Automatic annotation (TrEMBL):
Its EC number is 2.4.1.255. It comes from Durio zibethinus. PROSITE patterns: TPR (PS50005), TPR_REGION (PS50293). InterPro entries: Glycosyltr_41/O-GlcNAc_trsf, OGT/SEC/SPY_C, Sel1-like, TPR-like_helical_dom_sf, TPR_rpt. Pathway: Protein modification; protein glycosylation. It comes from the Eukaryota. Residues 482-637 form the O-GlcNAc transferase C-terminal domain. GO terms for molecular function: protein O-acetylglucosaminyltransferase activity. GO terms for cellular component: nucleus. TPR repeats lie at residues 115-148, 156-189, 190-223, 224-257, 299-332, 333-366, 367-400, 401-434. This is Probable UDP-N-acetylglucosamine--peptide N-acetylglucosaminyltransferase SPINDLY. It is found in: Nucleus. The keyword Transferase applies.
Length: 742
């Protein structure tokens, strides 16, 4: 933000004549008709009459005619000081500085103490840039007549200009001294106060600067630049309200002052961010929009509107403002990055990649975009490219905790669990409260630690204790104790869409006893689909309540649960993606349960029970849980097939002549022990084949590692078919027809 420094000159003051200041502007004079000598009318005036008439003509900008009369007077009386001064002024107004100076010099020779001639000589010196000579001339005038105000005012102007020249030459203290000398001569000269404000601002003596700007504005209430620079100081002090008030005063006196309008837009944008962070996002949006009123092409306001609309889940609006921000600021890599995030969340991965690459073309070491591009490549199964991007993000920003978390996700999806856990732990070293890394670490530990391993239980328990400290805990509930009142049961999950958990919760939701129990479903689905809509319709048709809670803070969700008087709250996610364990940590319901979505304890002491059965958790199991296990027979996993699965097809062995084993799963779940068992089975069944479908199999290095491991276990790679991710659910279902046994 530029300081508005003004190199003040004397032209604001007008011309000095023998009777003080005249009101003529310094602009070029209007039409001036020259005559061929002295007219008969002019000849009629002699002596004082001729001088008076010449002065009248001069006051009306008839400089040529006035000059002729002054010359006529001087022909008769070369010692007429008033005529020499009048002639000098006429020549000065016609930009004939040297002849004008000679006229004033002659007047001074005749009358050395003539303050008017001395003052006009000072003006001519100043116009030639001879500021020191100008100052000396004004000072001579003041020594001749200390009460002569025009000389004092002109001296203040030239001393101020001298101060600015000295300051620009690096002699700041001498410049300050000249400003104060100017104010000693003319205590009401606003530009001297203003320029002192500029100097003190540059010296970071902001209290002194404010005082000087305020005095400048007091002496000249229309001093727009002073108000503007006061606003800059308040803005830099984060006193945004005071800054905005100063800019408003500035624009009130100078509505088209572009610097002030731009500064107002900046202050309003910062104020919008401040109130948004304080929780009032709507007011924040209002300030951002007001900023655009003052500067309609201010990219930062547009960018922040994009951020705000994204937080409000108005992603179409967010896209519009990110696009505008990038249009008006083609160097705004952040806008490109955030567009990529939206497109990624909308499963438009190609567009997301395009946005991230554009951001990186602007900022090659932009760690967020490097990380985000790595995340998209991970989702696409392009593990080598993903690892390259995330490692570059870490090099660009070694303390970027989430990049380590995402590197862990990549290793997990590629089947390297030990390296995944190491990456998660590195993230937690940088950010001990990283929720993603903490929960991803627990999930990964299930793949390499046996269920009865105390290390696995202790990790979950320790996480739960630490996590619990981040949330307020309810210890009492005002649910009615009426025995005739139906129990109110809540189910909370982000997976009420085409997700593996949805196939196991569909039957319990549809066949729930809605007559004797009230059911409330809390849906944290990120992207609703046809299955979400079907669930919602069936629950509500049966008399249940459906609440969409995506984007709502978990503490607020807990408050909603209390308001709904939930008696039993069941969470269905555990430590998997988008879980609502933060809500469970608040204990908004007197009884809390975990079910379906996670194969182990949550570690949260606020969850009372874990629903399972005797097959998943045999009665004699040594595995520890913080929850009490409730073994409900034959209902832990209630699977509802997809309607796209179609009829059961004949086993392909009938036509192939060999048995095909298969698994469509995450590599993380295909542990070394699992591979050993598979290899033994296929080696024991002659001519049998194995088909495995997994997202990372589009990556050559992952395929090679997988096949090499099986060959080391005695299974030829020719007997193994590896399939990458199939995007459409119908195609995924059709692929099951390749297998006889899975």
């Amino acid at each position: 933000m530029a300081w508005n420094e003004r190199d003040v000159n004397g032209r604001e003051r007008g011309l000095i004549a023998e009777n003080g200041f005249l009101k003529e502007p310094w602009s070029s004079p209007g039409p001036n008709i020259s005559t061929a000598g002295v007219t008969s009318t002019q000849k009629a005036f002699e002596g004082k009459g001729a001088l008076s008439y010449a002065n009248i003509l001069r006051s009306r900008n008839k400089f040529v005619d006035a000059l002729a009369i002054y010359d006529s007077v001087l022909e008769k009386n070369s010692g007429c000081v008033e005529a020499h001064i009048g002639k000098g002024i006429c020549l000065q107004m016609q930009n004939m500085g040297r002849p004008a100076f000679e006229s004033f010099a002659e007047a001074i020779r005749l009358e050395p103490q003539n303050v008017c001639a001395l003052t006009h000589c000072g003006i001519l010196y100043k116009d030639e840039g001879r500021l020191v000579d100008a100052a000396e001339s004004y000072q001579k005038a003041l020594r001749a007549d200390p009460s002569y105000k025009p000389a004092a005012e002109c001296l203040a102007i030239v001393l101020t200009d001298l101060g600015t020249s000295l300051k620009l030459a690096g002699n700041t203290q001498e410049g300050i001294q000249k400003y104060y000398e100017a104010l000693k001569i003319d205590p009401h000269y606003a530009p001297a106060y203003y320029n002192l404000g500029v100097v003190y601002s540059e010296m970071m003596q902001y209290d002194m600067a404010l005082s000087c700007y305020e005095k400048a504005a007091m002496e000249r209430p229309i001093y727009a630049e002073a108000y503007c620079n006061m606003g800059v100081i308040y803005k830099n002090r984060s006193d945004l309200e005071s800054a905005i008030a100063c800019y408003e005063r500035c624009l009130a006196v100078s509505p088209n002052f572009e610097i002030a309008k731009n500064n107002m837009a900046i202050a309003l944008t910062d104020l919008g961010t401040k109130v948004k962070l304080e929780g009032d996002i709507n007011q924040g949006v209002a300030f951002y929009k007001k900023a655009l009123y003052y500067n309609w092409h201010y990219a930062d306001a547009m960018y922040n509107l994009g951020v705000a609309y994204g937080e409000m889940l108005k992603f179409d609006m967010a896209i519009v403002f990110y696009e505008l921000a990038f249009y008006f600021n083609p160097h705004c890599a952040e806008a490109c990055n955030n567009l990529g995030v939206i497109y990624k969340d909308r499963d438009n991965l190609d567009k997301a990649v395009e946005c991230y690459q554009l951001a990186l073309s602007i900022k090659p070491n932009f760690s967020q975009s490097l990380n985000n591009l790595g995340v998209v490549y991970t989702v696409q199964g392009k593990m080598d490219a993903a690892a390259s991007m995330i490692e570059k993000a870490i090099i660009a920003n070694p303390t970027y905790a989430e990049a380590y978390n995402n590197l862990g996700v990549l290793y997990r999806d590629a089947g390297n669990i030990s390296m995944a856990i190491t990456a998660y732990e590195q993230c937690l070293k940088i950010d001990p409260d990283s929720r993603n890394a903490g929960q991803n670490r627990l999930l990964a530990m299930n793949y390499i630690n046996e269920g009865d391993d105390d290390k696995l239980f202790e990790a979950h328990r320790d996480w739960g204790r630490r996590f619990l400290r981040l949330y307020p805990l309810y210890n009492s509930w005002d649910n009615p104790k009426d025995p005739e009142r139906p129990l109110v049961i809540g189910y909370i999950s982000p997976d009420y869409f085409t997700h593996s958990v949805s196939y196991f919760i569909e039957a319990p939701l549809i066949y729930h006893d809605y007559g004797n129990y009230q059911v409330v479903v809390y849906s944290a689905v990120v992207k609703a689909d046809a299955k979400t809509n079907r669930f919602r319709e069936k629950v509500m048709k049966k008399g249940g309540v459906w609440r969409d809670i995506y984007g709502i803070d978990e503490k607020k969700v807990a408050s909603m649960v209390r308001d709904d008087k939930i008696d039993i709250l069941v969470e269905l996610t555990g430590h998997t993606a988008n879980n609502k364990l933060g809500t469970m940590a608040c204990r908004p319901a007197p009884v809390q349960v975990t079910w379906i979505g996670y194969p182990n304890t949550t570690g949260l002491p606020t969850i009372d029970y874990r629903i399972t059965d005797s097959l998943a958790d045999p009665p004699g199991t040594k595995q520890k849980h913080v929850e009490e296990l409730v073994r409900l027979p034959e209902c832990f996993l209630c699977y509802t097939p997809s309607p796209e699965a179609g009829p059961v097809s004949p086993t392909p062995a009938l036509s192939n002549g060999f048995i095909t084993f298969g698994s469509f799963n995450n590599l993380a779940k295909i542990t070394p022990k699992v591979l050993q068992v598979w290899a033994r089975i296929l080696c024991a069944v002659p001519n049998s084949r194995l088909v495995v479908k997994c997202k990372p199999f589009c990556c050559d290095s992952v395929r090679l590692k997988f096949l090499t491991t099986l060959e080391q276990l005695g299974l030829e790679s020719l007997r193994v078919d590896l399939l990458p991710l199939i995007l459409l659910n119908h195609g995924h279902m059709q692929a099951y027809s390749l297998m006889d046994i899975r």
